[in-house]
Amino acid sequence: MDSYKFLALLKQVFVALLLVSVLVACGSGGSDSSSSTSVSAESESLSSEDEGPISSSPEAPPETDPTPVGIQRDSIRQFTFNHSLWQHTSSQHTNMVTGFWVGEFARESGTTYSWGGQFGQLVDHALPPRAWLGSDNSADLSPLGDSAIIRDIGLDNVLIMPPNFVQGGDSIARSTSLAEHLTISQRVIDWIIDESVSGGQKSGLPIYIYEHWQEAISDNLTESQFQAYHDVTTGTYHQWFLDYQNGLLALYPSVDFRTIPVGPIIADILQNDALAASQLSFTDLYEDESPHGKPNIYFLAGLVTYQAMYGQQVSEAYRPTIDPFGGVSGQLAGQENFNALNNFVWERLNYYNANGVRIWLEAP
Fold first, then answer.
1. What is the pLDDT of residues 226-241, one digit of tens each?
2. Cα–Cα distance between 334 and 339 in angstroms, integer?
3. Burial class (CB in 10 A: 0-12, 13-18, 19+), 238
4. Model confidence over 265-288: pLDDT tens digits?
5. Is 240 helix (H, G, I), strand (E, B) or coil?
6. What is d(CA 283, CA 240) in angstroms, rounded to the nearest whole number?
7. Could you check whether the bond before residue 128 is cis, i.e. omega within 30 degrees of 0?
8. Spatial CA neighbour of 286 closest among 342, 222, 219
9. What whole-number distance in Å separates Cα of residue 300 and Cα of residue 77?
10. How far is residue 97's CA from residue 90's CA, in Å, rounded to a whole number?
11. Other residues' Cβ atoms within 10 Å of the Cβ of residue 129
12. How many CA atoms lie within 13 A of 40 on its CB side?
């Protein structure tokens, strides 16, 4: 073999060895990349609480629907065991009802909402309950009317709410231990899931926990007092509801409990200077220290509740009526203000859903 042929053969061997080494490196690199991605994802998850609202619009191929099956809904039939932080009506205001605003959002968004409920605290609700509450703008919950009990009317879910004066905070003297209130709640829950003829026969339905807002120290808070009020709502008050949610899950591991973080998201809204709604004062929202709300607060509560239950935002075409009696304040209405609110609520629901609050179980 002459020298030229020998060099050519040596070159071919070298190229072959180089190709093998590249293929091996690529295989190893792929494994490292996967590991790196996993670590990065874990790091991002652990730091999400510090980063604020997560994106509600992750990038996805055009043909991919980012909303998991079973999250987005077009129709809801609901029974509520509610008190005045859901419904606070008067002869002047018929829209101081969270359910009223959910009905408005549903009607304008091409979805349907039917609800009926019973007024009172969990400790003294009549059982079996009667569907004697509702809103004129929601679909009829049952042809049986006020006499219907919940096992006789086709329902998608049941909503419960503890009082707002057992969590401590400003009303620390009236606080009730979590264990005691879990026991109080069992009375209603036991009836709902009881499959006997004397129970509600609704063991398979989701039960929503309506996380509302706390009592105040007076009927008009200063700016600093209002800030402290928000801090409690997103702090110890919210933690109480997380513990309440998880306590119920421990007591009833087969029941599908969900939480709607109404109070914390409203506090987030009111502290976000980029939103016109942050200009609202305590008296724009509440009428007393309980605090029973004005239309503005139930509008915001309805917006959070609608998105949480339907797994979608309100139609961008919706325009609230600006009116102190029949509508809401201008800071919540108008195309720019409402769309900003609509988007912000969606981002915050995603954030809370990723940080311990059972809203959708999976993030849309």
1. 999 999 999 999 999 9
2. 8
3. buried
4. 999 999 999 999 999 999 999 988
5. helix
6. 26
7. yes
8. 219
9. 21
10. 10
11. 23
12. 6
The token duo for 197 is 């003829």
Average pLDDT, the chain: 79
- The answer, yes or no, to whether residue 130 has pLDDT greater than 90, is no
List helix spans (H) across 215-289: 223-234, 236-251, 262-270, 282-285
Shortest CA distance to 109 belongs to which of 266, 321, 342?
Answer: 342
Residue located via tokens 């080494």: 21
Residue that is written with structure tokens 């998991």 in the block: 68
268: burial class by Cβ within 10 Å (0-12, 13-18, 19+)? buried
Is 75-353 assigned to CATH 3.40.50?
A: yes
Rg (CA), the chain: 26
How far, rounded to the nearest angstrom, does the alpha carbon of residue 68 sit from its chain's CA centroid? 16
What does the pLDDT average to over 249-274?
A: 97
Cβ neighbours for 20, distance < 8 A, ≥ 6 positions apart: none
Is a pLDDT exceeding 70 seen at residue 294?
yes
Query: Dihedral, CA atoms, 308, 310, 311, 317, nearest 10 degrees?
Result: -100
Is the separation of the CB atoms in 137 and 104 below 8 Å?
Answer: yes
Residue 309 near residue 206 (C-beta atoms within 8 A): no
What would the DSSP string read from start to end of 126-159? -SS----B--TTSBPS-TTGGG--GGGS--SEEE
Residue 108's contacts (CB-CB under 8 Å, 6 or more residues apart) are: 314, 315, 317, 318
* Contacts of 270-279 spanning 24+ positions with Cβ under 8 A: 270/226, 270/230, 271/227, 271/230, 272/344, 274/340, 275/337, 275/340, 275/341, 275/344, 276/330, 276/331, 276/332, 276/336, 276/337, 276/340, 277/331, 277/332, 277/337, 277/341, 279/331
- Dihedral over Cα of 350, 353, 357, 361: its sign: positive
For the entire predicted model, the pTM comes to 0.78
Give the pLDDT confidence of 30-66 residue by residue, as tens digits.
Answer: 333 333 333 333 333 333 334 443 333 333 333 333 4
Q: What is the pLDDT of residue 152?
A: 83
